[in-house]
Amino acid sequence: MAATGGLLNRGLLAGLFCVLGAALPLLAEEPGPRLRVDEPVFAGALFTPGASFSHEFILRNEGRAPLLIEEARTGCSCAVAAYDRTIAPGGQGRVRLSVDVYREWAGRDILRTVWLTTNDPEAAQVSLTVRGRVDKTGGPPAALP
Questions:
Q1: 140 is a domain residue
Q2: Which residues, listed in sequence order, are joined to residue 72 by a DSSP beta bridge?
Q3: Beta carbons of 95 and 112 less than 8 angstroms apart
Q4: Inside any domain, residue 139
Q5: How far, in Å, CA of 86 to CA of 38, rounded?
Q6: Is residue 54 part of a domain?
Q7: pLDDT the model gives residue 39
Q8: What is the reported pLDDT for 57?
Q9: CA 73: distance to chain centroid?
Q10: Same domain, 46 and 99
Q11: Are residues 56 and 110 in the same domain?
């Protein structure tokens, strides 16, 4: 009888470990928001002096709670960010970074960044950057043949 009880206890213990093993991934997944940005840097842009340039960054919420963009700051008065303030679980949102390109910048490399503050504890501060070169001719870029 003792041998049967030991086998039964081992069987119950093995079953318990199987159930816990299957549940661990669910337990590890926290119920909060999870921000994902596939392309946080847009590089290689050719800017036209005296014109505006805009780029849209795509944000995804891979979490199970709404993602809130609490603030979007730029470091220059020449740059403005427009953004979706709330992104539903499983949804997408956008941040549009618009830059006024001054004629005085012709021939220079520029970098403009928007810093986001979110409610994702793993991505509370995120930066999105546009960088490129301002055309040195001072006018619109020449058409390619």
A1: no
A2: 116
A3: no
A4: no
A5: 18
A6: yes
A7: 96
A8: 98
A9: 15
A10: yes
A11: yes
**Is residue 109 within 8 Å of 129, Cβ to Cβ?**
no
Tokens describing residue 51 = 């014109």
Number of domain units in the chain: 2
Q: Do 75 and 22 belong to one domain? A: no
Q: Is 76 helix (H, G, I), strand (E, B) or coil?
A: coil
Sequence-distant (6+) residues with CB within 8 A of 18 are none
Considering just the CA atoms, what is the radius of gyration of the chain in Å?
Answer: 25
Question: Per-residue pLDDT averaged across 105-120, rounded?
Answer: 96
Residues 60-70: what's their mean pLDDT?
A: 98
Buried b (16+ CB within 10 A) or exposed e, 54-90: ebebebbbebeeebebeebebeeeebbbebeeebeee
State how far the Cα of 88 lies from the Cα of 42, in Å rounded to an integer. Answer: 25
Range of the domain at 4: 1-29
Residue 71 pLDDT > 90 = yes
Residues 18 and 77 in one domain: no
Residues found in the chain: 145
Residue with tokens 């960010």: 81
Residue 56 domain-assigned (yes or no): yes
